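Budget justification aside, the reviewers requested a transparent look at the raw inputs and outputs of the sequence design task funded under Objective 1. We therefore reproduce one unedited record. The lines immediately below are the structure tokens for a 367-residue chain.
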């Protein structure tokens, strides 16, 4: 296998004082770090970096199997050199070798809208075309980050990787809003995918884009990320409208013999949509009636009525919903699921009364 290679030499007054916390931090994020003969080796998956603290400089050589891993390693190291450099200094970083020219991030794609379908009064499916989509075709990582240009911008401006290996954002007035969504359908051979958007009255960037979208509009996409479907003997899924696209995609990819239950909270019967279910699966729609999203406790009330079966094979509990319901479901999972047998993934997709940016910041702080 031919490896890609990049290198740089960063002037620093005390490179060893930067290298030590950099290694410690990356070790905490599951990188493999070792040292031999004055050279520090850092491995990230299929990439390998060699760092040498020299008088007045830190020399770095990275080799990786593909451009995405090479750029990811460059970013991980360069960003932490900047973070751990002495206060008041701004290290100059310039990489040479493969991937040295400014470029879109390797995990970034530009998508063009090809069609719009109204599934229910508050759920709209938007179809896109893009190139080289294979990396996004995964049930283990369902989510992507969408880069939504400001309304009225004639030509979208995308983030670029600079010569320093760091991400360069567009100016604030041209900067896309970044929101997480789930790929609902994907056809790698055809170069197409679909994403379902919930239409809100108090529309954020994603909902506003879905409301005004037209064929030919473009957005950016990066990823994938997050976690998704796991194999088990039985399944229990819980979701409100925001988690419904991910739930629907997982349901239609379950084995034909899978058994379980899906609980889905929606506004009313008009928000129901056809879902592909294995024969042994049950689906219960929970209607809020006139209650506002986040104001009802339908998911947690329904969960409280269930018997937590034991001795019937492994159970996978997956839930995606508002923050208050997330906390109760997560607590129940930790109380009732059996260690080493069952598994769960319970995620807060949004929080009533809190902006998406604030909610994301709270989750990062908690993590």
């Amino acid at each position: 296998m031919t490896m890609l290679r990049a290198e740089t030499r960063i002037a620093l007054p005390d490179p060893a004082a930067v290298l030590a916390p950099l290694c410690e931090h990356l070790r905490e994020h599951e990188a493999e770090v070792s040292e031999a003969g004055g050279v520090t080796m850092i491995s990230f998956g299929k990439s390998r970096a060699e760092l040498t603290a020299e008088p007045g400089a830190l020399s770095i050589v990275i080799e990786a199997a593909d451009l995405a891993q090479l750029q990811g390693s460059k970013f991980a190291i360069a960003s932490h050199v900047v973070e751990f450099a002495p206060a008041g200094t701004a290290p100059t970083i310039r990489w040479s070798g493969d991937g040295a020219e400014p470029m879109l991030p390797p995990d970034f794609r530009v998508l063009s809208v090809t069609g719009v379908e109204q599934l229910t009064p508050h759920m709209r499916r938007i179809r896109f075309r893009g190139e080289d989509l294979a990396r996004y075709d995964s049930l283990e990582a369902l989510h992507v980050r969408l880069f939504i240009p400001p309304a009225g911008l004639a030509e979208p401006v995308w983030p670029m990787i600079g010569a320093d290996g760091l991400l360069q954002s567009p100016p604030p007035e041209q900067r896309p809003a970044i929101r997480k969504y789930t790929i609902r359908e994907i056809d790698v051979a055809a170069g197409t995918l679909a994403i379902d958007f919930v239409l809100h009255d108090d529309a954020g960037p994603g909902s506003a884009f879905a409301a005004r979208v037209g064929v030919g509009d473009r957005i950016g996409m990066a990823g994938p990320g997050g976690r998704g479907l796991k194999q088990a003997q039985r399944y229990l899924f819980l979701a409100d409208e925001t988690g419904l696209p991910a739930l629907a995609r997982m349901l239609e990819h379950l084995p034909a013999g899978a058994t379980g239950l899906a609980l889905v909270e929606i506004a009313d019967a008009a928000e129901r949509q056809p879902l592909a279910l294995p024969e042994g699966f049950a689906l219960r729609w929970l209607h809020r009636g006139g209650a506002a999203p986040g104001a009802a406790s339908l998911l947690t009330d329904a969960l409280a009525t269930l018997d937590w079966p034991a001795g019937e094979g492994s159970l996978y509990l997956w839930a995606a919903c508002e923050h208050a319901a997330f906390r109760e479901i997560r607590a129940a999972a930790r109380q009732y699921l059996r260690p080493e047998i069952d598994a769960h993934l319970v995620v807060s997709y949004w929080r009533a009364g809190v902006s998406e940016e604030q909610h994301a910041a709270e989750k990062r702080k908690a993590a």
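Helices lie at 15-28, 67-84, 205-212, 244-252, 298-304, 323-336, 356-366. The two ends are 37 Å apart (CA to CA). Computational costs for records of this kind are itemized in the attached budget.
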